[in-house]
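[job 4471] stage=fold_predict status=RUNNING
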Amino acid sequence: MAHTLPWIAMFDLAKIGSGLPVSRVIGQLPEEGPLVVEAPPGTGKTTLVPPAIANKVGKTLVTAPRRVAVRSAGRRLSLLDGTPLGHRVGYSIRGEHEDGSLVEFVTPGVLLNRLLKDPGLEGVNAVVIDEVHERQLDTDLVLAMCMEVALMRDDLYLAAMSATLDAQRFADHMGAQILSTEAVTHPLDITYAPHSERIQGTRDFYKHVAAQTDSEHRTLVFVPGAREVDLVCGLLKDAAPLHGRQTSKEQDAALNGDARVVVATSVAESSITVPGVRKVVDAGLARVPRRDSRGMTGLVTVSEAKTSADQRAGRAGRLGPGEVVRVFSHDEYAKMQPDITPEILTADLTGALLTMKAWGSPDLPLLDAPKDLTEAESNLEHLGALANGAITGFGRKLANLPLDPRLGAALLEWGAQAAPTVARLAGEADARRLRRLVPDKGPVDPGEVIASAFPQWIARKIGDEYLLASGTRARFNSSAEWIAAAEVQRTHSGAIIREAEPIAFPQHRVVEETRAFLQDGKVRGRRVARIGAIELSSTPVKLTPDEAVEALADVDFASFPLTKEERHLKDRLDFLHETKGWPDVSQGDYSVEVRGVAEGASIGSCDMRQAMLRQLDWKHVAELDAAAPKEYQYDSGRPVKRVKLQHMFGKKGETVSGVKVLYHLLSPAGRPLAVTDDLDSFWEGPYQQVRKEMRGRYPKHAWPEDPTCPTCTER
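[job 4471] inference complete, writing structure tokens
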């Protein structure tokens, strides 16, 4: 629909877009969304598309995935517009706000909080989601939630911008048009300088990375995390760090300073420009959140995706011919995964689920659906944020805090003096904003704050390692018996605790329980005191039958040993389950047997024949011998009969419950001769060769020329 705006001073797109490749297609911008803009890095899409949309519809919010990119984009557009920052153009990040009447750059997290407080986005005419291809969790949520807002508000102009070839997929998902442009690329001289310890991330590897920075041009170095940034900077004489944990002032110093080398994490991969860069050194690594099968969540260092490697390389060719040194081999590049893995498929989803519950949509249109929300739901239930799957009042309070729910809960529990610790855990440089959100409850030990946020990472020193409450063993250089870990990283050689604080023995977290287990076929009991997987004591106890039954809740059919006869019966019943839909006895009720074991019987003494027959109704029991005769074997999933060939003369093949019997035909000595489920074909063909061989070997036995003769007998 066409938009009628009050008179406003339009952005001068010709002035702003001068020299930007995207200016060549900006005149094709549609009057209304949804829209996907496909434009490589360096084309100016972040600079020119938002003001162009604002000229059409009015106030435009633009998300960029990182705070440094938000600030940089806001300042650049304001400069090109020739107006003070905070007037027509502004930005909002946690702790910083410059109002923008026409265009406002924000992080996805800021927009999520705004959506929860103002689902209709009053006063906003357009939302532009930049760098959607990076597939960050908050960005995926923002896109889905804004799609729902656009369904309710047909005047909301929704656009997504991508630097990769995912544009068509986003367009299909959004029902959007595509506007494409190409970058003016300068030639790149790409060389490879591999090192054998790249994946391990050793100090020698990063010395090798630092050694590649020699150049007359300004050089941008990519490493996976802040720790590696500081390491490489320490190895160079003229280097500035750039990462997400810095203050805005520190980030500005890196971007606008005159250091010959800028060492950065992925924050410099897209959306921002590091001035003067003509050389890129890429370690080929990324640090991403991962959750393992045991529910352990941590940051993992992995090889970057090809799209990331290409984007990083492109930073060297924006001003002219550039040089790229990849500190990995060409073969390693070829084996990199093509695209970035969406965080929603691998990361901890506790915060995301809380946002979805607070939003309240039963079917949020996510580009990729989460694989499993069980762990996230359990975490929120434990925090008191959910009850029976529904968000609670406390959960809504947590959802409105600009923090992971666990950090938010720790801040609410301990008060303002926990803010420095919470800020550190959240990667925030300034704790003052967090202090203002909660009352002062007095001093608190940093370790207690960490333990409140991540109780699964409370750990006890055992030998040279620490055992986490989650059950993981990890290395950490400390003499403290008890610690609360704040960062756990999985490496090729096992888990490493990167940051932790000592704590006193957490007595209030001790859980005592009676455990039952099978030993020598009988149930035994122990009284166990533990903190998660950390066992503090274990004492033998005598179980009551009820305690044993409860503790044996996980005992299933597979736990019971079967005799040869019982196994044969199980094979018959499995066959009938598959062919005739009879009950699956392995899923039956064996509470009678469990009760017997609980009362002291050996598990091997249970009558499993009667137990299995008990799972059938009387009709099935009556039909069993006819439906699956005992004479056949069924362990292969079909009826099998091992029989001497002479016993089959004059007989035709049989079926059992509609399935052909597979015959293993044997010699008089019991040795295999043939396998067939088609006797007629066997008699007509292969039998004559078998007869020829057997007549000489076993002359006393009958080998009739016509084996189908009903009067043929063994002699």
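[job 4471] summary: The two ends are 96 Å apart (CA to CA).
[job 4471] exit 0
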